[in-house]
Structure formats: structure tokens, C-alpha cells
């Protein structure tokens, strides 16, 4: 189905060209038949009972791509891994997020996912480092640990009904300060600024 003309505006044409360029660079690194664009046919063996996954659809009896990306096959499942996609956390991932709310016994953390994450007071080390039961006094002092707009580092513990749960029970997790590294080249050091 390559060569299909789609009515695109200028912005869409630029985005399509960037995607095609990225696919071409990926194709040179791997199997050239593995990259597809929207409406490309994906060769499959129907006798094997193929399963259509994300990024695929059936059109006129053949499997076609619905996104630009790389064709992946896992046993009978065929799907297209998109070039750009939103972050999908998995258990064990270490994430950096921003505190958006301090609630009773928990902080709500924005991590650029479809849902906010939750860090429970019981899922982290207290500042004094002593392992003990959390008390009402600890709950009252939660803002002294993290407050709104603090940037924190934590590990994905699991998924619950109220969202993604995090844990920060190690010294490597916790509040992070935002720091920018500034370096100047030799020409920039010699330049004068008004």
C-alpha cells in the first residue's frame, strides 16, 4: 500500500517526512523489512493463526500498520512498536516525578503517565532512618519530608486500584534538587556580555 496519497497539510507532511527518515535510519541498523508506515501491509502467514496486536488492523483481508514503527513478532502475536509513545511504567522502574498533592498518609506524584502515582508514607524511610511504625505525628510532619513541587526519585512498586504505587525505602531515593550544569567554550569565556 506504499504510494497511497493522503491529503496532508504542511505540518503533517513535515511530521511524516521526519518519521520516514527515522524509519530509514532504523531500517539500516536492523532488518529492512521490519519498518512500516501507516497503511503498509505486514506480511503474515494466516495458516499460523496470527493475532493482531497494537498498531495493526485488518483491511481488505490483509494486516496493515496503523502507526509508523517497527514490526515486532512474539509467537503468533504481530504488533507495531511505535516510534514515539507515552511512558508506560513497569514494576521495578526507577522514576523521577513531581509532588502535586500532600494527602493523608500519601503524596500524589506526577510522572508523565496517564495517571498520577502514589507514594504512601509507609512506603518510605523516615528522615531519622529508624525503622518503626508510622504515627499520627509522622503524618502531621509529612510536609517537612516532601511538599508540593518537590522533585523526587522513587521505584515503581506495583499497580493498585487507585493508581501506580511507588516506594522509596533506600538512601538512593528521595528528594532531588534540580541542578543545571553550565559550561562555556573558550570562545564564550572570552566574549563580553552586556
From TrEMBL:
Record-level GO cellular component terms: cytoplasmic exosome (RNase complex); nuclear exosome (RNase complex)
Domain S1 motif, by residue range, is 90-169
Kindly provide the name given to this protein in its UniProt entry: S1 motif domain-containing protein
UniProt family annotation: Belongs to the RRP4 family.
**InterPro entries in the cross-refs:** Exosome_RNA_bind1/RRP40/RRP4, NA-bd_OB-fold, S1_domain, S1_RRP4
The entry lists its GO molecular-function terms as:
RNA binding
Q: Name one GO biological process term.
A: CUT catabolic process
Source taxon at top rank? Eukaryota
Q: Does the keyword Iron apply?
A: no
- Coiled coil located at which positions? none
Q: Which UniProt keywords apply?
A: Exosome, Nucleus, RNA-binding, rRNA processing
Q: Which organism is it from?
A: Cannabis sativa
Is Amino-acid biosynthesis set as a keyword in this record?
A: no
Protein's cellular compartments: Nucleus
Quote any Pfam family the record assigns.
Answer: S1_RRP4
What the entry lists under PANTHER family is as follows:
EXOSOME COMPLEX COMPONENT RRP4, PNAS-3 RELATED
Amino acid at each position: 500500500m506504499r504510494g497511497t496519497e493522503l491529503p496532508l497539510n504542511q505540518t503533517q507532511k513535515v511530521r511524516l517526512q521526519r518519521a520516514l527518515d527515522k524509519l530509514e535510519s532504523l531500517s539500516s541498523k536492523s532488518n529492512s523489512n521490519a519498518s512500516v508506515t501507516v497503511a503498509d501491509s505486514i506480511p503474515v502467514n494466516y495458516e499460523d493463526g496470527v493475532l493482531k496486536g497494537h498498531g495493526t488492523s485488518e483491511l481488505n483481508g490483509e494486516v496493515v500498520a496503523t502507526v509508523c514503527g517497527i514490526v515486532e513478532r512474539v509467537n503468533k502475536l504481530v504488533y507495531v512498536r511505535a516510534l514515539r509513545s507515552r511512558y508506560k511504567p513497569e514494576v521495578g522502574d526507577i522514576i523521577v516525578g513531581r509532588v502535586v498533592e500532600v494527602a493523608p498518609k500519601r503524596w500524589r506524584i506526577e510522572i508523565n503517565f496517564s495517571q498520577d502515582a502514589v507514594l504512601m508514607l509507609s512506603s518510605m524511610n523516615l528522615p531519622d532512618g529508624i525503622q518503626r511504625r508510622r504515627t499520627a505525628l509522622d503524618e502531621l510532619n509529612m510536609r517537612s519530608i516532601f511538599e508540593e513541587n518537590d522533585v523526587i526519585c522513587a521505584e515503581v512498586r506495583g499497580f493498585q486500584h487507585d493508581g501506580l504505587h511507588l516506594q522509596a525505602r533506600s538512601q538512593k531515593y528521595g528528594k532531588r534538587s534540580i541542578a543545571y550544569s553550565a559550561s562555556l567554550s573558550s570562545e564564550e569565556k572570552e566574549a563580553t556580555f552586556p
